[in-house]
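Why do we bother with holo predictions? Because pocket geometry can differ from the apo form. Keep that in mind while you read this record for 2-acetamido-2-deoxy-beta-D-glucopyranose.
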Amino acid sequence: MLAYAVLAIVHYTFFLSTHAHSAAEPRVVDSDGICSQIENAISSASDVYYFGELSYFKDIGHWASSSSQLSLCSVEPGTAQDVGIILGILGTTQTPFAVKGGGHTANPGFSSTNGVQISMSRFSEVTYDAQSQTVVIGTGITWDDVYAALAPHNVNVVGGRVSGVGVAGFTLGGGYSWLSNQYGMTVDTVTAFELVKPDGAVVTVTESSDADLFFALRGGMNNFGIVTRFTLKTFPQGQVWGGLITYVAHHVDDVTKAAATFSATVTDPKASIITTYNFVLGSIGISQLLFYDGPTVPDGIFDDFLAIPHFTKNVKTRDFLDLVKTPPSDITIGQRGIFHTVPLLEITPAILEAVVNETMFWGSRLSLLSGNFISYQVEPFLPGVLSHASSPSAYPPSRSVMYLPFNVYYAWTFSFSDSKFHDTIRASVQHLTNVAVAEGQSGVETASPYPNYAMYDTPVTRIYGENLGRLQSVKARVDPSNIMRLTGGFKV
Ligand SMILES: Cc1cc2nc3c(=O)[nH]c(=O)nc-3n(C[C@H](O)[C@H](O)[C@H](O)COP(=O)(O)OP(=O)(O)OC[C@H]3O[C@@H](n4cnc5c(N)ncnc54)[C@H](O)[C@@H]3O)c2cc1C
Ligand SMILES: *[C@@H]1O[C@H](CO)[C@@H](O)[C@H](O)[C@H]1NC(C)=O
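The structure, written out:
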């Protein structure tokens, strides 16, 4: 934990410098009075905020500072009807806007804008229905909030694995969870969306009400309007076992072997891991997350990891939310950041060896350019994850083969280094793709990358594949004047 403590102090200093930098940017002025138009049209359940107000800064804030922009104003709608009124004004005036749920995208401009920032924070309900075993969740909250509200009922949903991630973007892009091996992706557990269509109409979208739109919303992100509520299936949840172990450079090879063995042999759907290779403070290390959906773990599953000498170790039987809060998921908060991904078919020793090399090769070079956190997250899942959908979804375009949501994450300080980091993450992803192809992993170069990890310039033809045509026809019907084109994201 020493490394993390030092890092936290270093980052605080960096945060102050990047914050000062952004405050020096020219302030945007709403010369057309769009924000006052919105202010006059919305009900008393909603509010508009301006530069200088605390709520404005909260509304434009993101997990990665590079995902934030200064907007004309921010608006916190309190009703779905007001969301419709706001979309109407933005459409008529052709004003760029952004919709933010938990603000955890690493892609610049996906939930930020220099137009009008919409923050969904007032959509904060969590309403559990024991009868139907479902829960209605507002799109302005984090998974932490949902887990906390469901815990007293001993049920859970298929959501985020670490603290602070928003339910909205996560669910609209797919959703890989500790529980995915058992129940599928989050999109596979959605039974209904409350959607404000671009024309302002508030509709409930289910498989039976509108099968095409239901298909499109499960992975199609913000292309079809603004979602105000999800209805998700719930599942029984008791105590779980797991947490975080960190290892220093000396033990990287042993942990790599353990991860490869786990990936190749463990078929118990209650077990799951994330092996994160990171380069911090001049050296490679591993943050190893272990999860088992039960108070005790059958012998053999995690024994290899537990036998390796650790740097820090915090694993035990605990509540689900406590496990989610164990890793320091906001360690790089306030820094610039980018995610990218390779849709791997398998976690093989050759891939892991290449990942170790990438971590050290780019870690040592990028740290000279204010790169504070260079990391590669290996996330094995069972192919059975794809077997839980009631019908096809926008993502993944094919369910016949499981490609894994492997994540690359870089964090750095200075905005003038953005293009260097973006170019490097592209090169690193290309290199790992080549390694996978060279060892015979078929389809990796064309498979659909996970939209919640894919970098902003990934072509939608690649993400949605065969599904793109169907998505485009849903889009033409639901958003004929292309109002959602005024906001960032992967556009179908
Ligand atoms: C620390 C961390 C941990 C993560 N862990 C996981 C993980 O375990 N599994 C996983 O699958 N992914 C994970 N992710 C990736 C995560 O799925 C994405 O970052 C996702 O975008 C987060 O959703 P959000 O609501 O916080 O994001 P936001 O930045 O608020 O939104 C992301 C996108 O969704 C759109 N959007 C937001 N709200 C709405 C709405 N109401 N209607 C329509 N569109 C909307 C935005 O416009 C934007 O394009 C993680 C990310 C981070 C940073
Ligand atoms: C290590 O990674 C770099 C950058 O991708 C690459 O050029 C180099 O060939 C790799 N080395 C080995 C031994 O794989």
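Residues 63, 99-105, 110-111, 120, 139, 160-162, 165-166, 168-170, 172-176, 221-222, 226-227, 329, 452, 487, 489 surround flavin-adenine dinucleotide (ligand 1) (CB under 6 Å).
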